[in-house]
Amino acid sequence: MKLSDVKKLHQKKFRTQFGFYLVEGEHLVLELINVAQHNSSTLGDITLYVTAEYETWVKEKLDSSVSNMKVETVSSQQMQQLSDTKSPQGIIARVPLPEASLGSQRSQTNISTNKSSAEKYIYLYEVQDPGNLGTILRTLAWFGDFTLLLSPNSVDPYNSKVVRSSMGAIFHVNMELNVALESLGERFERFAFLDMNGDNITSNTFGDYQCYLFGNEARGVPVEALSQLNAKAYTITGSGKIDSLNLASAVNICAYELTR
Hints:
The chain is an alpha/beta fold. It folds into two domains: 95 residues, CATH 3.30.1330.30; 156 residues, SPOUT methyltransferase, trefoil knot domain (Alpha/beta knot), CATH 3.40.1280.10. 33% of the residues lie in helices and 20% in strands. It contains nine helices and ten strands. The strands form two sheets. The chain has a six-stranded parallel beta sheet. A four-stranded mixed beta sheet has the order 1-4-2-3. β5, α6 and β6 form a beta-alpha-beta unit. α6 runs parallel beside α7 and α6 packs parallel to α9. It is elongated. About 5% of the residues have low confidence.
């Protein structure tokens, strides 16, 4: 793949066209290598683009169990062109997109299978902020046993900002993309969602649901859609000094409550 095409992978349309996304930085690439050492067949063929300073580092980290990573040395100027950061560290991985992100729905898109089957589903409706999605991925990876469902018109989880803010969690969370809100009733019988007038999430019944609905940062979950689902309202009780929680914070609190 030409370096000029690799640079294009910062745009969603080219990620879809070429079937790859980028993982940048020492920490994220090291996590990627760790995943590959346990399950290289799931990842597909990966190319590491490194500057001369990282050649020795890569040789030290890669072992014989990782047969699907090719290393290509580039100049500092070329690395600057490949990166979308002002001061790139000098290492970028080109990783195959999971098949589900290329158009199929309801397919698991995790690339790490060293986990148990998900017991709970977190559904995000049209989440827009890359930082929110990255933080949510970190939370779900921390607690485990969750599958993340993303609606159409959500931020792309393979956006470089999401990948960075997930701090490697994107390799460890089951995801399903383009899951329509109206299709959920075919899969689940009961739902829980957050509302200021709901029962407290500390209620004994909060953990009884399989799918938990969280809305767009500005608009929430459409009321008309909730009316078509068997959905129960819950609330996170606060001090009353502010009127809302950040989306990622709300998911974090609920995930903790569901696993404690």
